[in-house]
Amino acid sequence: MSATRWRRRALGLAVATAFVCGSPGLAMAAGSSGSGGPSSAKSDVAAKHKALSDAKQQAAAEKQKLASAQAAVAGAQAQLASMAATARAAIDRYNHALHQLRAAQTAADAARIALAAAVADVQQKQAQVNAFARASYMSGGPLGAVAVVLTSGGPAAILDQASLLGAVSQSQADMLREFAYAQARQQTLSAAADSAEQAVQRITDGAAADRKTAMDALAGQHALIADLTTQQINVAKQLAAQENKVATLTVAQAAAQARAKAAQERAALAAAWQEMQAAGDAMPWATAKQGRVALKWAKKELGLPYSWGGGDATGPTLGAVNEDGNAAGVHTVGFDCSGLTLFAWAHAGFTIDHFTGYQWVEGHHIDVGQMRPGDLVFFATDTSDPLTIHHVGIYVGGDQMIDAPHTGANVRYDKVFIAGFIGAVRP
């Protein structure tokens, strides 16, 4: 009941009491019935005043509680907006980095091809020089010294020997000069190729950091949207109760608005998630051989215990306390599902994150008919919503995968095509 209605009721009672006390006849009648007379009326007034005071205090407390709940909702909304902005900026940086990475990788590939050609050229000219020096040495002629110079200073030193040049024909001198140029060119191209590879690695590291920032923000949004919806509905109920609007329709409408808002936020989140998935599809493809390598390393871990949060690129590790508060992982060296997959694929030359949801967008989505050994297979509580993915394994073939299923189990073979299977990804 609101403070205003309490005031009205108390005022009516006070007026009624005053009227009764002001009527001698009624007062006598009351006294003759043994109700206590004026003292009883005063007690009633005091009780009503106390009830009014209690009601005011309760209303103030409820108002404060509502204000706190509304502040919490506002704070959560601001946090959600901040996460969305962070994700958006990180996704933009990630996409930009991928464009740079493709260009840098093309340049690095071209540099390596040029270097390979230079190495082949040097090897060819080296063979010619070696044959030239060997023939000269065997003949015992004036060019025998070429062999000595080659072992000490290389072709450049030969060209510096004025006395020797007089005994070397023009064609032989050109051969030695070309050999020296080829070696110098090889060194230049080798440095250029190394620089190009370093540029690729820098961009790759930056892209990985941006991808992780984006995925962390998206995961945070996903968790917060559900909490925020619940908070908004609770605030609506509190507001209805405080205003004494018991009408279910009012609460239902507020709850529907909260859910509609959450649906919009989930749609925006899903769009961002799809963009990350599209970015993953633009990454280099793993070969069938690399898939077999990843599977081989996963097989080595069969029988190892599950440890929530356990495992990295180098092998099994201690885990952590899981989301349900189970601390078994803290004392267990092993793998969780995504720890096993990142370990196996690290040995195949691919770096993926230690979070099942992230791994879904770190590769190419494969049709069931195209799956091959080593592919990652994923499971979700809602197969229409990748944001509900909770488990991943490594495809073996047929209807089998190797996975680290849950606390208390070991790394083992399990079936793939079961309820919850949402799809496959190839790094």
Please characterize this protein's 3D structure.
This protein has 427 residues and is α+β, with helices and mostly antiparallel strands. The protein has two domains: 1-283, Helix Hairpins; 285-426, Alpha-Beta Complex (endopeptidase fold (from Nostoc punctiforme)), CATH 3.90.1720. It is 66% helix and 8% strand. It is built from eleven helices and eight strands. The strands form two sheets. Strands 3-8-4-5-6-7 form a six-stranded antiparallel beta sheet. A hairpin with an 8-residue loop joins strand 4 (376-380) and strand 5 (389-397). Helix 9 (288-299) crosses helix 10.
| Strand numbers in spatial order across the main sheet | 3-8-4-5-6-7
The rounded distance between the terminal residues' Cα atoms is 62 Å
Residue-averaged pLDDT, rounded? Answer: 76
- Give the SSE string: HHHHHHHHHEEHHEEEEEE
- Number of individual domains: 2
Q: What is the chains' assembly state? A: single chain
Attribute tags:
Helix Hairpins; disordered N terminus; 66% helix; single chain; alpha+beta; 8% strand; 8 strands; 427 residues; six-stranded antiparallel beta sheet; two-stranded antiparallel ribbon; elongated; 11 helices; endopeptidase fold (from Nostoc punctiforme)
Provide a concise account of the structure shown.
This protein has 427 residues and is an alpha+beta fold. It folds into 2 domains: 1-283, Helix Hairpins (Orthogonal Bundle), CATH 1.10.287; 285-426, endopeptidase domain like (from Nostoc punctiforme) (endopeptidase fold (from Nostoc punctiforme), Alpha-Beta Complex), CATH 3.90.1720.10. The protein is built from 11 helices and 8 strands.
